[in-house]
Design brief:
Blueprint lengths: L9 E5 L2 E5 H4 L2 H6 L2 E7 L12 E5 L13 H12 L6 E6 L6
Parallel strand pairs: 2-5, 3-4, 3-5
Antiparallel strand pairs: 1-2
């Protein structure tokens, strides 16, 4: 008997902008069902799950926040703005290791 894991949740935090976990970022059906086209990985050691299928921005933020995530704000903001202002209906997922630091 096979059990399907429930889909990893993501939260809409602004029109076209979602927040989720690395588990959500590795769930292709979940990503496509929400129209995700761009993914921001806020973690040093996470490798994009679907290179070539989504546009990625990987920010080298560590899980203990020893490096300030604020130093990447402008780069992330530009990536999000470029995605959301495009002609196509693009949606962005921002994710970390898990949901505890969201």
């Amino acid at each position: 008997m096979e059990f399907d894991a429930p889909p990893a949740p993501i939260s809409l935090i602004y029109p076209g902008l979602y927040l989720g976990t690395s588990k959500a970022a590795a769930n292709k059906p979940l990503l496509t069902s929400h129209g995700i086209t761009h993914i921001i990985c806020c973690a040093e050691e996470i490798t994009p799950a679907f290179p070539g299928e989504f546009q990625y921005l990987v920010l080298p933020v560590d899980n203990q926040l020893e490096k300030s995530a604020f130093q990447y704000f402008h780069e992330a903001r530009k990536f999000i703005d470029d995605a959301l202002s495009g002609a196509s209906a693009s949606h962005v997922l921002v994710h970390w290791y898990g949901s505890d630091l969201r």
